Structures are given as structure tokens and as C-alpha cells.
């Protein structure tokens, strides 16, 4: 009927992808009326519910339009495909090859809408009052189950807080660490003649991976913490020195190198934290996306007494959702809850209940499976393009996540190369800009999740030409 053929598992995803591609390339022109869900289901030999779900998702995304009395038609103004890599790209920042961004077109709009509607229909009147600052009990319970099942975390809902993604979690931890370092609110030493009122918070130092996220370092500085670089090698972060309040690590998929923290280093890191009284802050930023290896359990699962697990749905769903979590050791729970109460007195309940519905109803897992398939295809396209157009480069960190590191030969100025790339509408990150003290080769941190295979190939080809 539409020339479609669906085979194997995930036929719903196949149908959505095929219809979206047909609209994008003009095979289905604006205004074209699609077959009824009953007729298309019969033609494809699938359930009608599968077709209904596909139509609903594409309607929510803006590709299709449901008209009363006219059925489902291709939208008159479908989402345009931007011209690739304009030379002068005005804000917002250029997207192709930018690391840390998921494919926002994959956001499960239909599933999220259904979850939100179920949450709205079932929410108790009392749950519409001022919320628990720690977050919806339903979401905390659902997340605790999810983190235990998927990440091998030891997640007690009583020690789990819902946050405005990772940024707020780190702010809460900074506040709690500062409070813990000033027992009973006592004042630390002040300069002579100081007129500052109230307790003065001490100077806190926190270990960070080197190389590591520049954005995380800036956020820590903004919260009064001093980042101290700790070298990363092929086994992950090395054992930090004494005198730190905490260390922030990305053990499942180190950013940016992609290294997995080895078992020996994990044990050494936990021993260091227990010996020094420091906190391990585990940023689980993209561990749900893995392709060529078995799942890696979180450090918190083996050391819940000294580890705070931070995560969010920004990579799994979309940054705009602004929901995350913070799983803390029992000793820090009260201080973090006080900080959360002071920060916002609780987050948006309905959005939290919608995420709980998505988790408990299986929609979150289905979305992750679909996203993994798409991202693996794009990862493979990136590898092929680098092999062809940058044969003297090496690609690392590809077993998981949404980005890869392309190391370049000595002598290449990766900062200058990235500056030229930005002028052509690309946005890789220079590897050297993510180092504080560590030495290493030049390179590019390239995001592939939000870029199609064809755009990835074109982008790598353009980068190769800009090197010359």
C-alpha cells in the first residue's frame, strides 16, 4: 500500500522510521492522506495498535496531522531538515558533532504524553499540595527499582532525592559537604578584623578527572569548590591524594576518554575514601548506552557508605525534561535534604509522576532499546568515516556513550582545528581543552548521537579538509 515491508522485532520502530524518512525525502508529500490504521495494519500484517502508536508518535513530532473527517495526512509544514553545515551559523550553537547531546527527535513524545495523562488522571488531591522536597515517593520508588536492576545500585528510596538534573545534584552536594566540614555551625578561622556575619565556610578541594568535563569544573568553581586534577590513564582515575573533601568520577564511561575504571582502581578508590573520610561522587551520565560490552555496575553498589550516585534523564530522554536523581550515603541524607528544601522546596510533581509512569510501564526501557540501536548505527558510521578520511587518527571510547575521542598526530593544533570547524557549522570539542595538568596527544571529542550517518560522514570529510 505504501511500499513498506517490516521484518523481525521492533516493527513499530521500523514503521515510525520508514514513515518519517518518506516524509523527509518527499516520497510522502505534504497533504498526502495516509491509509487508515486498520487498512495499513492489514497490509503490513501487524496489529492495528502498532500502527495507531506509530501515527500518534509522528503526529506528536509534527510529521503527520490528524484531521477530523479527513483521516491522517502528512503535515503541510513538516519539520525541515536543515542545510548541512552552513558557513555562518548563528546562535543557537551548531549541533553537528557536538558531544553530550542525544537525538532530540527520538524523544518519546507519544509515550511521554500517555504517561503524563495517566499521571494526571490518577494523581491524588493531596499530591497536588506542596511536594516533598526530596521528590515524589512514587518516582523515588520507581527509580530505586530501576537503578538496582540496571545499574546494580543499592538504592534505598529514603536516601534518594529527585533533582533538577545533575547541576542541582552537584550544588546540593557542595552545600552538604561545606556544612559537614563546619561542625555545629562553628566559625572557621577568619582574617583579623573580619566583619563577616554568620559561619564562614571552609575552603573545600575536590578531585576531578584529568582530562575531564570543563563544564563540570566550572560548575564546581561556581559552588565554591576548588577542582584538583587527578590523572586518568588506561585503567581510569588514579588514586587521589589526601586532603580532598571529595572526588568526582565517571567510572562506567570516563569523560572524555571512555575508559572503564578497572576493578583494582575501584577497590583502591573506595579504600582511599574510607581511609580519608572523603566522598566519591559518581556521575553516571551516559552509562545506559553501551554497545560492545556487558553492563558495568556502579561504584555505589559496592560502597554505598562513601559514594553519592548522580544521574539524570538528560542523555536518555532530553535535557529539557530537567529531572535527575541523587543517591547519597545515609550520613549525608539529612544535610542534602536541608539543602534541597532551601533550594526549591520541591520540584514539579506532575512531571515526576509522568517519569514514574514511564519507568513502571516499560516505556523508558523501550525508548532506551530504540535509542541504542540508532546510536550504534551512527557510532559505526563515525568509525567508517574516520577510517576513510582521517586514516592517521585513532578512535577511542566507542564501546558506550554518545561520543568518541579521535586522537590526532602530534603537531596538530586541535583548538585551531575546532575553531575552523565552528566557522563551518561543526562543533567538536578540542581534547586539549579538557586537560588541566595532564599531557597527551591532540584530538577531537565528537558527538555522534544527534547527527545522521550521512551528516557524520560529511562532517568528518570536512574536518579532514580543514586539517590540510
UniProtKB/TrEMBL annotation:
Organism annotation: Longispora fulva
Domain of life: Bacteria
Pfam families referenced in this protein's UniProt entry, alphabetically: Aminotran_1_2, GntR
Family in the record: In the C-terminal section; belongs to the class-I pyridoxal-phosphate-dependent aminotransferase family.
Family annotation (PANTHER family): HTH-TYPE TRANSCRIPTIONAL REGULATORY PROTEIN GABR
PROSITE patterns noted in UniProt: HTH_GNTR
Residue spans crossing the bilayer: none
Keyword vocabulary terms for this entry: Aminotransferase, DNA-binding, Pyridoxal phosphate, Transcription, Transcription regulation, Transferase
Name this polypeptide is given: GntR family transcriptional regulator/MocR family aminotransferase
HTH gntR-type domain location: 9-77
Gene Ontology MF terms in the entry: DNA binding; DNA-binding transcription factor activity; pyridoxal phosphate binding; transaminase activity
Cited InterPro entries: Aminotransferase_I/II_large, HTH_trans_reg/aminotransferase, PyrdxlP-dep_Trfase, PyrdxlP-dep_Trfase_major, Tscrpt_reg_HTH_GntR, WH-like_DNA-bd_sf, WH_DNA-bd_sf
Annotated SUPFAM superfamilies: PLP-dependent transferases, Winged helix' DNA-binding domain
